[in-house]
Design brief:
Strand content: 15-25%
CATH superfamily of the largest domain: Aldolase class I
Helix content: 40-55%
Number of helices: 18
Number of strands: 14
Largest sheet: 6 strands, parallel
Distance between the termini: 51 Å
Length: 450
């Protein structure tokens, strides 16, 4: 059978402006789930292709001979996923299967648009679904007990742009911040064998990838394991030009780990500082202290590890002044990048349940659940004030003046990326102001006039 996997992108994320900003922020990569499932189906003799809309448009007219479409959902792309599914049902005779994070938490909603919906991790059921041995409309897939049983993502199946390989050495996270979906989707926390991880890195080296991401929710959750992976990477010359990973502030407390990360060229880390207000950190069950944040901010630069600061805007404990203070702190420690994210109540999380019970959700238009749009009533500011703060935080951090104050710390590539980000952010901010004042049938206009 001919099987096509599609990871949709919302209208805004398919825009030229967003794609330019995405290119300046990092390197193009691909969701690993469809590539893993595609590898399983390819091994069984099926003709498999994988497409992502984030970086380039898909020509659907060339896919009319497909037997099965598998559509991957996350909350902000759910509306687009449903649109694609409904259109393909009309234009083709293919079966439509929907899975992924969003569908796993609201399967009945997804089932309106699909022949079958898969919730959870699909490795153990995908072949039986495709070949007709499982025919239930709602298929609840069990979690994969041994991660080594999953094949590596097969990038030869990918038909859209990709310059960076994604590697997941674990699934889940031993922490459970109240806004996080992945720690609930991928539960319990599981580890692959180090040997399996190293073998996968060897594949990507042979394929010519220069950039790599460790996509674990927290690559350094098991510090001794992370150290051993780094040692093996160094010993076996599996060093990439740039390797990104997710970590927590506690990595700053382990000097041996920092040295190994640096030597293995894990040189770009996103750390969820979220807030520098202890009350707010406790509210989201972050399980870190403001002192941890300060230690991390002061330490990483000594090991040539570039810090991406993640902030959550709109936590109940934070005022506008608290948000501004956190942005100022990111500037003070010369963070490599800032990733401010508006608190987003994703289905399946305690935050969603809390805001729903308190009648504080503005709407459930999923395309706005993208960490860039306000979808709830904050406690210490208006929704529109929080929306403006998202843009103000970006404008302040990615100021033109920061190019001159920090260019000696980084390279020319950083300067060009930073300049592109500055231009994109300013264009987006101007468009937001115009929209809020003049375009009545838009989300941001409604926020301003609530």
């Amino acid at each position: 059978m001919r099987i096509v996997f599609i990871t949709p992108a919302s209208d805004f994320r398919r825009s030229h402006l967003y794609r330019l900003g995405s290119m300046s922020y990092g390197h193009s990569n691909a969701i690993t789930g469809p590539l893993i499932l595609g590898s399983l189906l390819k091994s069984a003799g099926h003709d498999v292709s994988v497409y992502e809309e984030l970086y380039q448009d898909i020509n659907f007219s060339k896919l009319t001979e497909t037997d099965v479409f598998c559509i991957y959902t996350m909350t902000p792309n759910a509306d687009r996923a449903y649109f694609i599914a409904d259109k393909l049902r009309v234009d083709t005779h293919a079966r439509i299967i929907i899975g992924g994070m969003h569908a796993s938490f609201v399967p009945e909603e997804a089932a309106i648009h699909a022949d079958q919906v898969v919730t959870g991790e699909a490795e153990t059921v995908i072949l039986d679904i495709i070949e007709g041995r499982i025919t239930d409309q709602l298929v609840h897939a069990p979690h994969l007990k041994n991660l080594d049983d999953a094949p590596y993502p097969d990038y030869t199946l990918l038909k859209t742009q990709c310059t960076c390989a994604n590697v997941m050495t674990t699934r889940g996270c031993p922490f459970s911040c109240s806004f996080c979906t992945t720690s609930r989707m991928y539960h319990p926390y599981r580890r692959r064998s180090i040997e399996s991880v190293i073998d996968e890195l060897k594949v990507y080296k042979k394929q010519g990838f220069h950039y790599m991401n460790f996509e674990d929710d927290n690559f350094t959750a098991d510090k001794e394991r992370a150290k051993e992976i780094c040692r093996r990477m160094i010993a076996e010359k599996l060093i990439f030009k740039e390797t990104f990973f997710f970590g927590r502030t506690d990595i700053a407390q382990d000097e041996e780990l920092l040295k190994l990360l640096s030597s293995a060229h894990l040189n770009r880390v996103l750390i969820g500082m979220e807030s520098i207000n202890q009350e707010s950190l406790d509210m989201i069950d972050k399980r870190q202290s403001v002192a941890d944040i300060h230690q991390c901010g002061e330490t990483l630069s000594h090991y040539n590890i570039r810090l991406i600061v993640s902030l959550i805007l709109g936590i109940d404990g934070d005022s506008l002044a608290d948000i501004q203070h956190a942005v100022d702190y990111a500037i003070k420690i010369n963070a490599y990048q800032l990733q401010p994210a508006i608190l987003t109540p994703y289905p399946g999380t305690p935050i969603y349940q809390q805001l729903k019970e308190e009648n504080r959700l503005i709407n459930c238009d999923w395309e706005y659940f993208d960490m860039m749009n306000v979808t709830f009533f904050p406690k210490k500011m208006t929704p529109y004030a929080l929306q403006k703060q998202f843009y103000l935080a970006n404008l302040k951090f990615y100021s033109i003046s920061s190019l001159f104050s920090n260019y000696k710390r980084f390279d020319l590539n950083w300067v060009m990326r930073r300049l592109a980000m500055s231009i994109v952010i300013r264009a987006c901010a101007l468009f937001m102001l115009f929209t809020a004042n003049f375009l009545r049938n838009t989300h941001v206009y409604r926020l301003k006039h609530l």
